[in-house]
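Recall the central idea of this unit: under ordinary conditions, the amino acid sequence of a chain determines the structure it adopts. In this exercise we apply that idea directly, starting from the sequence alone.
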Amino acid sequence: MLEQIKTLFSDLFLFNPDEPLIFSAPLFWGFFAVVMLVYQFVYKHIFYRNLFLTVFSFFFYYKAGGYFFTLLILSTLIDYYAGKGIAAATKKSTKKLFLIISLVANLGLLFYFKYTFFFLDASNQLLGTNYQVVNMFSVLINNLAETFDFLPFVDATVKLDTTSIILPVGISFYTFQTMSYSLDIYKEELKPVHNIWDFAFFVTFFPQLVAGPIVRASDFIPQIYEKYQLTKQQFNYAIFLIINGLVKKMLISDYISAQFVDQVFLSPDAYGRTGFEVLMATYGYAIQIYCDFSGYTDIAIGISVLLGFYLPLNFNSPYKSDSITDFWRRWHISLSSWLKDYLYISLGGNRTISLFTYISIPLILLVFLLIDGFYIADFAFFAIIIAFWLFSIMFPYKNLAAIIGLFFITFFMIKLGQDADLFYIKQLGFAINAKKSYYTMIMLGIVAAFWIFLLIYPQKKYTISTYMNLSLTMLLGGLWHGAHIKFIIWGALHGGALALHKFWMDVTGSHKWKGKYLKYYIFLMQIVTFHFVCFCWLYFRADDVNKVNTMLNLIFTNFQPQLFVDVCIKYWNVFSVILFGFMVHFLPISWKNYVRIRLSNTPDWAKAVGIALIIFMLFQVKTVGTQAFIYFQF
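Accordingly, the structure predicted from this sequence is:
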């Protein structure tokens, strides 16, 4: 009996890395039911309401991410006192000092857990060093666990791995969130919170803690001091969002992932695999990641509304976009707006170009050289190009420097194009002649395009600044997603596309063509934008760049249209779910609102029966095990 009680206690209250506490897990809804029950007694008292939700939020993070909740406490303490210091300081230098402390602490933690292994591994490969990773956080936690083993929730026998660095759940989200607090106080757009418990509540609010939306301090903190309100209309809206999010996650995303997408991306060149299957897996991943991430957001917003708080919209039918700029107004809106306000504008925005941007261009080019393979001759050309780049910046009216630089860029691209790397895909039995330095050539082409544009239109210096700042912002946004070359390429592709679209609008003088062909133009641009985004998703999802190259080669060289029917019959159930997901996504917003309003107006007993049936259905189609949300890894 005692062992059963211990097992039950362990299952309920101790962290299990194989079964983290997430929104699609039945255990979460058991806990949430208890939260709502207790909430009935504390919601009228603002301090006790916030304190109760803060305590549960820390527990939720512990159940979702284990001992990393201590990092959450550390970030909370640092940024709370940094915010107080900024607000109390009378000198600009003192304010800046406290801001620097906040930024260094947050970015330092993010860098350590997200990028240490990446840079050590790169150093070992490029410089021949033999640095070994030692996770000092795991060492510290293991020592503390031995010290406090007498506590019921501490198990010293469970040792954390000290030879690798595991990314804490949601660290990218809550570090951006806490940095917005310090930055907004520094810019005098926000006053500090009344006490540390209020700040802890802002940082840890559990619905959006591990995967967003990224909530601005200026948007959320005022809600902390408002009285609880929940109308019947808001209640119906919250329930609709929660059910909608669960359907997206469990019925569409998890099913597509387990039954098809994961298999193809794991082994794209498996025997008998056709390009058509790879293309369908690409489309499948596009709807999978949308339903997974927007499903989480729907649930987070719905739970928040039930608790009396309101989170910002994070998705707005992104695959309806008719340009890449429009896509980023609709996809992960909280991140794109954060990057715009705190990074893009800091780089100079559309007004000027910062020194950081100037320095970053050659560094980015160097990174792409390293991706493709680095040789001494390449370094010589690289050094010459950068020298003329710097000279043209220092003396912008000396066109000769730019012209000579363009000559060397062209010559370098020709050289790289001749350095072909012949490799084989054994399963398919044929050779592919692939340009070894494909990514470097693209980057050189972009730099050359900027240079040519400035030669033709020297008065457009600030326009070029906009293009460069846009590209750099998205490249850093890609790096934010993960310490891997594939994320750098993903960000660079989106940044280049944003700059190209901005250039197109500058040249044409309008966002869209006008006249009777407008609707056809929009439709064509929607198709082009969707397929460009899907192309970029390959880099986002695949394990490495080599697999992306394999998948692209399969699509373009082994499509086998004669097998369409056989493949569709084999995967008819998965393809049906993919088609259903896209059909719902592309429905007019007015239709979706109509359905939501009609469901809200149905009798309560009918809604209860409908919700019960939907939940029963979801757990019938539930895949084996609990699949974490995709953005938990970021």
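The chain has 25 helices and two strands.
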